[in-house]
Amino acid sequence: MTTSTNGTFDRTPFIAGNWKMNMDHVQGITLLQKLAWTLSDAKHDYNRVEVAVFPPFTDLRGVQTLVQGDELDVAYGAQDLSQFDSGAYTGDISGQFLNKLGCKYVLVGHSERRTIHNESDDVLNAKVKAAFRHGVTPVLCVGEGLEIRQAGTHVQHTLDQLRANVEGLGAEQAAELVVAYEPVWAIGTGEVAGPEDAQEMCAAIRAELTELFGADVAAKVRLLYGGSVKANNAAAILNERDVDGVLVGGASLDPAEFANIVRFESHLVTD
Ligand SMILES: O=C(CO)COP(=O)(O)O
């Protein structure tokens, strides 16, 4: 029998693919088509496990057309948004535009934005609020670098980011939030935080959300793990109690591999 060892999930599992700066709009359509076919062949139940992709901005219109035209159940979102709504912000993209393109989600505070673009906690807090203002759900990314992990202050560091980035949200907004724990040392390195590391941080994040917004809200928030997730390690990570999904980088560019991650329950074999 193939089933999840913990049997049921408190929240709908969420499997997300962050394409980063890969796949032009033509390649992106092909990738999404192959993913949809593979999942359709496997009779994937999207109500049981939600699937989302995060293509580059330039792919989003094509993705919208494909999703609408083929009536796909795959959700999609952008990898960033502006904290502003409109105006003289050359190169930036408003949450309003994302909403108009049918984006359900937007990544906020990915470590590559925090480091390469020096996005501060204040800016990220404004981006989280901008996403909500435009009806797009933020997938807030938090996590520590290697030095902080080695110093043993990773939980404190990550919770500090979380608190700063969600400051001022109402309970209703907080309950919608998705939070992705992505230890920077495990991104694109082949180093995977163990399932117990993912659980440790996700439990700490849920406890912090309980403190900030109450237990009812915290119980609704989906918490993801990201960092070198592949089909062969996803099931063990997702089997942890407080881990509700995964945010996949490199492996989401391979439709067969990503589909296998989506179908993680078929890899969890009980006795
Ligand atoms: O940054 C990530 C997802 O947002 C993780 O990337 P990798 O899966 O390539 O390590």
Describe it.
- It is a single chain.
- The chain is 43% helix and 14% strand.
- It is of the alpha/beta class and 271 residues long.
- It has a single domain (2-251), classed as Alpha-Beta Barrel (TIM Barrel).
- An eight-stranded parallel barrel has the order 1-2-3-4-5-6-7-8, surrounded by six helices.
- Residues 1-7 have low confidence and may be disordered.
- Bound molecules: 1,3-dihydroxyacetonephosphate (13P).
- The site of 1,3-dihydroxyacetonephosphate (13P) has 14 residues, from strand 8.
CATH architecture: Alpha-Beta Barrel
- Strand content of the residues, in percent? 5-15%
Form type: globular
C-alpha Rg (nearest Å): 17 Å
Number of E-state strands? 8
Distinct helical segment count: 12
Mean pLDDT: 94
The top-level CATH class is Alpha Beta
| Fraction of residues in helix | 40-55%
* Strand neighbour order, sheet with most strands: 1-2-3-4-5-6-7-8
Helix and strand pattern = EHEHEHEHHEHHHEHHEHEH
CATH topology name: TIM Barrel
N-to-C span: 8 Å
In terms of per-residue confidence, which ranges show pLDDT below 50 for 5 or more consecutive residues?
A: 1-7
Bound molecules: 1,3-dihydroxyacetonephosphate
Overall structural class, as computed from helix and strand content, comes to alpha/beta
Sheet bearing the most strands, described? 8 strands, parallel, barrel
What is the count of distinct domains? Answer: 1
CATH homology superfamily: Aldolase class I
